[in-house]
Amino acid sequence: MLDSMEEIFQKIEQTGKPFWEVVLDADMEERQVTREASLEKMRRTWLAMLEADDTYRADRRSVSGLVGGDGRKMRDYAAEGDTICGDFLSEVIAVALCTGESNACMRKIVAAPTAGACGVLPAVLISIWRQGRTPEEEIVKTMYVAAGIGAVVSYRACIAGAAGGCQAEIGTASAMAAGALTALRGGTPEQIGHAVAMALKNLLGLICDPVAGLVEVPCVKRNVVGAVNAVSCADMALAGIKSRIPVDQVIECMGDVGRRLPVEFRETALGGLAVTPFGQQVKEQMEKRDS
């Protein structure tokens, strides 16, 4: 069990191993599996992320009918070659939408760290891989970095919207993606920590307010926010920009903020966007349909 980012940094210093391998060792010890078995499971996880995007269909709709088709719209728009974001970020947005929509439409996804935040990590990893900027084996290694970050946040704070709001889901996913991307681009352990801290700080206090209690609106589009935030934080960290507040303190702060959030803002659908007139209308329609 990895209890803190500082513990990971210390193990890196003591062993001379990279971040990803320290997490791999922890997985082997915790699950009592061989190195090969651990790597194979992570490789299958990566392939499942790819499959969720590859098998996306724009004609599928979610339970409420509100979610579906936006991933295709983004790709069609990007294909015109005139986006504000450019090719890479446009693909990040598209993958985040496709994966989030796949979850809302009851398709197979990888919870990273949760189903509601499933589009963030794949968005950055799949996009950079498809551009040919990194081999697949490096992606698999980098996923251990993301897993280690997620494990620390889970231990020191929380990753569930019901416990800590959307900052715990999208925020953690964004931190995982930022750290993974920084590692993938050759960042130091210190830079990985700064990327994680900045990503979490940027989404601190984000509430969980699903319309009609469904993981659809605004959840899917928040995956986009988390992914784009991760890219910007990774680039800031790689540029040498630092988080003034140490990463473990930021993680603990997120947990504290989550505990202080009113119950209405913790996946209860009793506040925020869920209680707007539109949100209430959707809720009533769903209740009529189910009655």
Please describe the structure with a list of short key phrases separated by commas or semicolons:
291 residues; mainly alpha; 2-methylcitrate dehydratase PrpD; globular
Q: Helical amount among residues, as a percent range?
A: 55-70%
Major sheet attributes: none
The span between the termini is 46 Å
- Rg, nearest Å: 19 Å
Number of domains: 1
**Tally the helices: what do you get?**
13
Residues in β-strands, percent? under 5%
Low-pLDDT segments, ≥5 res: none
CATH topology call? 2-methylcitrate dehydratase PrpD
Q: What's the order of the H and E elements?
A: HHHHHHHHHHHHH
Instruction: Give me the CATH architecture, please.
Output: Orthogonal Bundle
Which class in CATH terms? Mainly Alpha
Strands, count: 0
Q: Mean pLDDT, nearest integer?
A: 97
Describe the structure.
- This protein has 291 residues and is mainly alpha-helical.
- It has one domain (5-284): Orthogonal Bundle (2-methylcitrate dehydratase PrpD), CATH 1.10.4100.
- The chain contains 13 helices and no strands.
- It has helices at residues 5-15, 19-31, 35-54, 70-79, 86-104, 120-130, 136-156, 161-164, 166-184, 189-202, 219-238, 247-260, 277-290.
- The radius of gyration is 19 Å and the shape is globular.
- It starts with a helix and ends with a helix.
- The model has no long low-confidence stretch (mean pLDDT 97).
Condensed summary:
65% of the residues lie in helices and 0% in strands. With 291 residues, the protein is mainly alpha-helical.
Give the arrangement of secondary structure elements.
Blueprint: H1 5-15, H2 19-31, H3 35-54, H4 70-79, H5 86-104, H6 120-130, H7 136-156, H8 161-164, H9 166-184, H10 189-202, H11 219-238, H12 247-260, H13 277-290
